[in-house]
Amino acid sequence: MKNVAFVKWVKSNLLRAYTFSDETAPGDPQYLGFVDQAGNWVIMKVTALRVTFAKGTGDYHANFSQCENIEYLDYFKLLRNKS
C-alpha cells in the first residue's frame, strides 16, 4: 500500500472518534472499516493512487461485506455531503 503514511495520518487525525473494525486483504484496492459508539461508520478505500471514503449510519457489517459496491468520495466532498 503506497499511501501508508497518509492512511496513518487519517486514522490518527480524521477518524479519532472512530474505532478500527475491519480490513480486507492487502491489495489494490484495500478497504478499512471504522465505527463509532453511535453506530456511524466510515469505510476507507485505499488504492495506489487515491484514498476515498464512504460513510453511513447503522448496519456496518452488511455495508462492509459489500464494500466494493459503495460510492466513495474524496474527503472534502464527503464533508460537504453530510448524510
Roughly what fraction of the amino acids lie in strands?
25-35%
Spell out the helices and strands N to C. Answer: HEEEEHH
Write down the domain tally: 1
Give, in spatial order, the strands making up the sheet with the most strands. Answer: 1-2-3-4
Q: What is the 3D shape?
A: globular
> Helix content range of the residues, please?
25-40%
List low-pLDDT spans.
Answer: none
What is the mean predicted local confidence, pLDDT?
Answer: 86
Separate helix tally: 3
Radius of gyration: 12 Å
Largest sheet: 4 strands, antiparallel
For the secondary structure, the number of strands is 4
Give the N-to-C terminal Cα separation.
Answer: 29 Å
Model description:
This protein has 83 residues and is α+β, with helices and mostly antiparallel strands. It has one domain. Helices cover 28% and strands 30% of the residues. The protein is built from three helices and four strands. It has helices spanning 4-14, 60-65, 75-80, and strands at residues 19-23, 30-35, 40-46, 51-57. The chain has a four-stranded antiparallel beta sheet, covered by helices on one side. The longest helix is centred in the first third of the chain and has 11 residues, at 4-14. The model has no long low-confidence stretch (mean pLDDT 86).
